[in-house]
Amino acid sequence: MSVSSVDTALAWDVSIDDAPVALSARGDLVAVAGAEGTVRVLDAAFGAEIGALDLPGGALRVELSPDAQHLAVTGPMGYALWRRADGRTTVRESGAWSAAAAWANHERVAVTSGRRALVLNADGGELWRTEPAASTVTDLAWLRQGRRLAVAAYGAVQGYERHTEKAVVTYPYVGSHLALAVAPTGKWICSGNQDASIHIWRTRDGSELTMSGYPEKISRLAFDETGFWLAADGAPDVTVWDFADKGPEGTGPRSLRCHETVTALAWRPGAAGHLASGGDDGAVALWHATAGPPQARLQPARTLEGDGEAVAALAWAGPHLLVSAHRDGRVRAHRVPSRTAL
Length: 342
Known about the structure:
mainly beta, four-stranded antiparallel sheet, 33 strands, disordered N terminus
């Protein structure tokens, strides 16, 4: 397949000593987590470092709070929180696998810790925790504007209300959940699974749907801001499912082919349907991901050619700045044209 390449302006290009595994961008900050636990906090406009911390045992996920004043980092041996105002870092070396973090708002963050989810205040004080799940918690997400927490572990996704140890709702599914995505509308909960499927629950009535037939496990799922479009990996094509109206049952996804292996996905802020994807070839592709009819095979609107180093993570620092982290330690920010044109 022939794909034209169009350069965007490179805003900045920095290197870190630790191979990046995760990115987060909020407000004027970008946080980069390395595999060995090094975390760098950068100014989004220029790439200058304004803060740093280390999480012993390595890092898996990094999440900036909505107001960009706090940072949560999770890893194989625990988690850490960082405060922008004074650089204060709180590290919890629990020895428990901490796979994910999610902010409910600028005051509360949930982190996974072994078979539980912990809800903390912004400075790391524990507010409440869930009962132990059947196995290690793999992902979590907030619903109902931070009033309900969805927690994924083997066999089920469970929902918890604030300050309740026991689940108030259970969405069963026999299998290992690798990724969790909740529609911003609160209407849908989706899990990407080890058995190469996407499982969907409608929160209103608990009705279920499974999209199977993927050649590989689903480890990346992302809803756009409208909650109408879900992007997933699990194949050489990125698949984009339409969740408007009654959802994707009986329909086929749009397919986006650019990479041999998809390694990162990130929706552009806004409702234009623009998606960025990264691959093991080092390239970043930009897509009009919701164009065309169902089952359409789409071409990239443009590609940002890499230098052969795989893309580890992508994040949008606002609608016009796309940040890519590469496994050789390079972190690049690309200026992208307006929402109406890529």
